[in-house]
Amino acid sequence: MFALFTDTARRVVVLAQEEARMLNHSYVGTEHLLIALTSDRAQASQALTAHGVTREAVRGHILELVGEGIAASPGHIPFTVDSKQVLLNALSSAKGYGVTDIDSGHILHSLLTGDTSTPPVAHLAIAACGASTEAISQSLTELMTATGAPEAGPEPISVLLHQIRRGHHERPA
Question: For residues 2 and 101, what is the distance between their CA atoms, to the nearest angstrom?
Fold first, then answer.
């Protein structure tokens, strides 16, 4: 499935794993995907930040909602059922936009429109930022369907990982 992911989408998955490690979590959940989506320069990040959903704000709310883990997990960190479903549903989102490659915008769309019978932590963090999933989804759709609106190129992964690691020691207020 990851063969269908663009470089930007792959970067989101790597950054989500890194965020889980930095928070000492033993899983990669929707909250880690959300933090990763705010860290890139793509349309997903643009839609989120337009509504005040920034990396710093989300990270702070995640710490309030689930806290920090006790110790870093060595090796592979598994994805939760919800985060796996978000990544799987991103393919349907891409098809809905008439494309075959999954980009970060499709991951965000899947995250925003997934089953909310039990809201994932990402939805709780978005609400804590004062935003709504519906408003972000609308902004994302506008960005992704705008004609001639090129998506910003992805930030080099080394730059993003450096920012994440540096930001790990800066606790949000």
Answer: 10
The predicted pLDDT at position 165 comes to: 54
Q: Which long-range contacts (CB under 8 A, 24 or more apart) does 64-70 make?
A: 64/128, 65/31, 65/121, 65/124, 65/125, 65/128, 66/25, 66/31, 66/121, 68/23, 68/24, 68/25, 69/23, 69/24, 69/25, 69/26, 70/24
CA terminus-to-terminus distance, the chain: 39
Distance of CA 50 to the CA centre of its chain: 15
Q: What distance in Å separates the CA atoms of residue 111 and residue 32, rounded to the nearest whole number?
A: 11
DSSP for residue 155:
P
Question: What is the Cα–Cα distance from 39 to 33, expressed in whole angstroms?
Answer: 10
Q: What is the DSSP letter of 23?
A: T
pLDDT in tens, 12-63: 999 999 999 999 999 999 999 999 999 878 899 999 999 999 999 999 999 9
42 Cβ neighbours under 8 A, 6+ residues apart: 8, 103, 104, 105, 151, 152, 154
pLDDT of residue 105: 93
